[in-house]
Amino acid sequence: MIPVIVCIAKKEQDYINEFVDYHLGIGFKTIYLYDNEDVPFYETYLNNKNVIVTHLPFNNYNKGVQYKALDHFVSTYMKDVTHVAHIDIDEYIVLKKHENIKHFINEYIVGDCQGIGINWRFFGSSGHTEKQNEPNTQRFTMCEEKGNMHVKTLFKTTHFNGYGTVHHVYFTEGHNKSTNGRILTDSFNEDIDLSVIQINHYKCKTLPEFRIIRERGRADIAGNITENIDEIFKEFDKNEVEDLTAKIKFKNLQKY
After folding, report:
1. I need a labelling partner for 104 at 20 to 30 A (CA). Which of 2, 162, 207, 215 fits?
2. Three-state DSSP state, 85
3. pLDDT at position 112, please?
4. Is 156 helix (H, G, I), strand (E, B) or coil?
5. What is the three-class DSSP state of 244?
6. Domain containing 73: what range?
7. What distance in Å separates the CA atoms of residue 53 and residue 44, rounded to the nearest whole number?
C-alpha cells in the first residue's frame, strides 16, 4: 500500500515543516508538493527524500493553478501510488480511532467504497492575536463544535476517473462514501461524523497571518480576486469547543 498526499504551497515557509512531519508521521509514504512560489524554494528548504517537489509558478493558467497541479500529478505520478489525498498546507488529516492512515484505509476503503470524504473542522485563533513560533497543532486547539459539511477525499487510485473539484473525485465503478457508509456524490457531507477521522482546517490562524495568506490569491481560481479579508477572518474564527487530538498526536510524533 502506498498512500500519498498531493498539495500546493505558496507563502507557507513558516508552516510547511510541521505539515510534512505530521503527515509522514501518520503513515503517508510520500508528499507530492507543487511549489507555487515565483522562484523555486521548497525542494532545497525541505531536503526530504519523501517529499517530491515540482515547481509550478504563477497563476496565469486558463484555470486555477491547483487544477494544473492535479492534472500534472495524475498524468505523472498517480500510476505509482495506491491511495491519494489532495489537501492544503493548512489542512491536517486527524485520525480518531487509528494510529496510522494505512489502518484506516484497511478498515474503511473496502468493497465498493473507492474513497472516503473527510469533513473539515475549522479551527479558530484560540484567542491569539499575533503570530508565534509554535506549530499550528500546538497553538490552535479551539474549533467549531459540529464540523463543516465540505469534504476532502482520500481515495483508491484503481478506479479513478477524474477530479470533480479540488474536493472530490469520480470513479469508473464504486462510490465515494462517508465513514458511516453514506454515498457521497459531490463535495459535501451534511451527515457529519467526526468520531473516526476529520480534517483540522487551520484556515484563519491569527488575523495578521490570515492577511498574508489571503493576499497571495487563491490557487483554485485563475487570476486575482478582491475580498474583505478582515470580515472573512471573522467568519472562520471558530472557537466553540476544544479538540486536542492533533496537538497530542504531533507531540507524540516529535518524541521519535
Report:
1. 162
2. strand
3. 97
4. strand
5. coil
6. 3-253
7. 9
Closest CA to 163 of 64, 40, 90, 58: 64
- Beta strand extents in 123-189 (DSSP E only): 142-143, 148-156, 160-163, 169-171, 175-177, 183-184
Average pLDDT of the chain, as a whole number: 94
Are 83 and 155 within 8 A, CB to CB?
yes
Distance, CA of 189 to CA of 187 (rounded, Å) = 7
Q: How far is CA 5 from CA 24, 100, 229, in A?
A: 9, 14, 29
State the total domains in the chain. Answer: 1
Q: What is the pLDDT of residues 28-39, one digit of tens each?
A: 999 999 999 999
Of 171, 45, 16, nearest to 109 by C-alpha is 171
Which residue in 106, 100, 86, 112 sits closest to 8, CA to CA? Answer: 86
